[in-house]
Design brief:
This protein has 13 helices and no strands. The protein is mainly α and 309 residues long. The longest helix has 38 residues. The chain is elongated and about 130 Å long.
Length: 309
């Protein structure tokens, strides 16, 4: 009897086998597990997770209540600006090209005006002094517009107006020097081209020389009928030579003739400028263009400054 009781107690306290009668836990989905691992890795890699800022540790409600208690003004964050609200109003490439053109024109103006100013001196010392005046005037004309515009922008109106007055004086001086340089060189080149000998001029000179020789032989014994005929022949040959030389001088400046013909063709002969009109226009442009380097620098500086639209 005792053995049966002990056997039944032992049978009741035997442990159950693993997996028999125990409900299995649900398996987590592999996608959720991979997502959780990825989030943990990103959180561990971020610098804020390792060294959190003091602002993130303090609740926002505590900061607002503390500032309200001490009467501190609420600082609102600045409004976000979209990419299309403020756009640069300049082109960097165009500004760089303007600066390059300004310095190129300034270099030409300084060289030409310095050369012409030095040629006005009666001695070497006077020439070098005139050269220094020309170079200094060109440098002032180059940098003064930008300085005067900056002073005007800073509300220093009196100083800016004084700068513009100084620029006007140096600009007029530089333009007059440029007119002198251009006129001297254009006249020399035109005279050299007009004095060139063409085949027509050579033939006319030979004919005139023969006519003069014949007149001298005929008129050696006195003035008669044949002598007067030889005189008339010499006059005719001389007129032919003058016509040939005039045609050469007219072609000494082909730019002027082409410009006159172009204006007349475009306007259907309504406008036909003379040679002097075009010569004066070309002279003014040649003297004026090398002196606008300062204006180009001022424009390029204004273009580089961004402005809100």
């Amino acid at each position: 009897m005792a053995d049966d009781t002990i056997a039944s107690v032992i049978a009741l306290h035997q442990p159950k086998r693993a997996g028999i009668g125990v409900p299995r836990a649900r398996r987590s989905k592999p996608r959720k597990r991979q997502k959780a691992k990825r989030q943990k890795a990103e959180a561990a890699a971020s610098p804020d997770a390792e060294f959190p800022s003091s602002e993130s540790l303090i609740p926002e409600s505590f900061l607002s209540a503390n500032s309200a208690a001490f009467g501190e003004p609420q600082v609102t964050p600045p409004p976000t600006v979209t990419s299309g609200a403020v756009t640069p109003s300049y082109r960097p490439v165009a500004s760089v090209l303007l600066v390059a053109a300004a310095f190129a024109l300034a270099g030409v103006g300084i060289t030409t005006n310095g050369w012409f100013a030095r040629s006005l001196g009666s001695s070497d010392i006077a020439g070098w002094l005139f050269l220094a005046i020309g170079v200094a005037a060109d440098l002032v004309a180059l940098v003064m517009p930008s300085c005067a515009a900056a002073l005007w922008h800073n509300r220093q109106r009196a100083t800016s107006l004084a700068g513009w007055a100084v620029w006007a004086m140096t600009f007029v001086f530089a333009v007059t020097a440029g007119i002198g340089f251009a006129s001297v060189n254009i006249t020399d080149v035109a005279a050299a081209r007009a004095a060139r000998v063409t085949p027509a001029v050579t033939a006319a000179q030979s004919a005139l020389s023969d006519a003069m020789s014949a007149r001298d032989r005929e008129c050696v014994n006195g003035v008669g009928k044949f002598c007067r005929e030889r005189e008339a022949a010499v006059a005719g040959r001389r007129q032919i030579l003058d016509t040939a030389m005039a045609s050469v001088s007219q072609t000494a400046d082909p730019q002027t003739d082409a410009a006159i013909k172009l204006v007349a063709w475009v306007t259907h002969d309504v406008l036909r400028p003379s040679r002097d009109d075009f010569a004066m226009l070309r002279l003014v442009l040649l003297a004026l263009l090398p002196q606008i380097g300062g204006i180009l620098l001022m424009v390029s500086r204004s273009a580089m400054r961004p402005s809100a639209r």
